[in-house]
Design a protein that fits this description.
about 325 residues; Rossmann fold; two-stranded antiparallel ribbon; about 15% strand
C-alpha cells in the first residue's frame, strides 16, 4: 500500500495537494513505517537511543524510506549500519515527490529545524544522504537554510548524493520532447495524448534540468521545449560533498553507459560535471566514486556503496 501511494504521489502529487486529497503524503519523519511527531515528546519516543550525530536519509522519486532496505534483510539499511558502525541516529524522511523540488526543499529545511531544536540530545553533527531526487531536495534545503539563517546547516559535516541527477534526467527530457512534438501535429487524438503526457507532476518536470529553486520554474511554461532556466545554487558551506555514481556496464566509457548511465541518470549528471568538459564541475571530482555495473535502484542498498559511505562519514 505504501509503495503504491508513493508512486501515486510521484505522478500526481501536486494535483493531490492542490485538492487537499487525503492520499497526499506530507513530509514527515518515519520509524518502522509510522510517522513521527516532530516535537520533544514524539522524538524522544521515536529515538530512545538518540546520539549527538544525526544521519538524515531522503529517498527519491516515487519511493519511500523502504528503498534503503537491503533485499536480503529488510531490517538492514544504510541508516541502521551507520548507527551500528559510527553511532549515528538514522532519521528517515518520507515526502510527496510529485511536488516541486524547491517546495520539498523548503519543507525539509523546516523539518530539520524542528528536529534539531527538539532532538532528545543536542545535535553536534549532521550527515545528509540523498538518493536520486532526494539529492536535489537536500541541496535545495541547504540553500534555503543558508539563505534564511537556519542554524542546522552549520552542523552539516557530510553530504552524500547517491545517483542524484544534478544536471537533469534524460527520461524527463524525452517526455518533454514527445509531448511537444505531438502537440504540433494538428490531429485531435495526438493532442489528447500530449495532454495526458503533460499531466505528469511538477516534481517529475523539475527533473528535466534539476530545478532546485522557485526561480527556476516560476513564471515559465513547464511544457516549453527543453527550456533550461536554472540558476546556480551554491553547495552547503562548511560541508564535504561526496557523490555515488552507478553504471549499467563495467566501464564509464562503454557505449551503453555513455547513453544510459545507471539506467536513469547519466554519469556526468550524477557526478555533477558538464558533458563536454568545458565548464567547471559542480562538485570536487576527487569526491566522486563510480560503481561499475550497479544500476540506479541498487545504489540505495548495496554493501560496496555502504562501505564507501562509511569511509566518508567516518573521516
Amino acid at each position: 500500500m505504501e509503495a503504491s501511494l508513493s508512486a501515486l504521489n510521484a505522478v500526481l502529487g501536486d494535483y493531490l495537494k492542490d485538492r487537499a486529497n487525503g492520499l497526499e503524503i506530507e513530509m514527515r519523519l518515519y520509524v518502522n513505517n509510522r510517522p513521527v511527531r516532530c516535537d520533544r515528546d514524539g522524538l524522544a519516543r521515536a529515538y530512545p537511543d538518540a546520539s549527538h550525530r544525526i544521519c538524515l536519509l531522503v529517498h527519491g522519486l516515487g519511493t519511500n524510506e523502504g528503498v534503503w532496505c537491503f533485499p536480503a534483510d529488510r531490517a538492514v539499511s544504510y541508516g541502521s549500519l551507520l548507527q551500528k558502525d559510527l553511532g549515528y541516529t538514522p532519521c528517515y524522511v518520507r515526502y510527496n515527490s510529485g511536488l516541486h523540488v524547491s517546495e520539498n526543499g523548503r519543507s525539509l529545511a523546516e523539518l530539520l529545524d524542528a528536529l534539531v531544536r527538539d532532538h532528545p540530545v543536542e545535535v553536534e553533527e549532521i550527515a545528509l544522504l540523498g538518493y536520486s531526487m532526494g539529492g536535489l531536495v537536500v541541496r535545495s534545503a541547504c540553500e534555503v537554510a543558508a539563505r534564511e539563517g537556519y542554524g542546522w546547516v552549520e552542523r552539516v559535516k557530510r553530504v552524500v548524493y547517491i545517483g542524484a541527477p544534478h544536471l537533469g534526467a534524460p527520461l524527463e527530457k524525452v517526455g518533454n520532447v514527445v509531448a511537444w512534438v505531438l502537440r504540433t501535429i494538428d490531429v485531435p487524438h495526438t493532442k489528447l495524448v500530449a495532454d495526458v503526457i503533460d499531466l505528469r507532476s511538477s516534481g517529475i518536470k523539475d527533473m528535466r534540468y534539476a530545478n532546485l529553486a522557485p526561480e527556476d520554474w516560476q513564471g515559465f511554461d513547464p511544457d516549453a521545449l527543453l527550456e533550461d532556466h536554472r540558476k546556480a545554487v551554491p553547495l552547503a558551506p562548511g560541508a564535504a560533498h561526496h557523490l555515488v555514481v552507478g553504471t549499467l556496464t563495467g566501464g564509464e566509457r562503454h557505449l551503453l553507459t555513455r547513453l544510459f548511465g545507471d539506467a536513469v541518470v547519466r554519469v556526468p549528471s550524477a557526478a555533477g560535471r558538464s558533458r563536454d568538459g568545458k565548464r567547471s564541475p559542480i562538485f570536487p571530482q576527487e569526491n566522486v566514486r563510480i560503481f561499475p555495473g550497479l544500476g540506479h535502484v541498487a545504489l540505495a542498498h548495496d554493501r560496496a556503496v555502504y562501505d564507501q559511505i562509511k569511509v566518508w562519514l567516518g573521516c
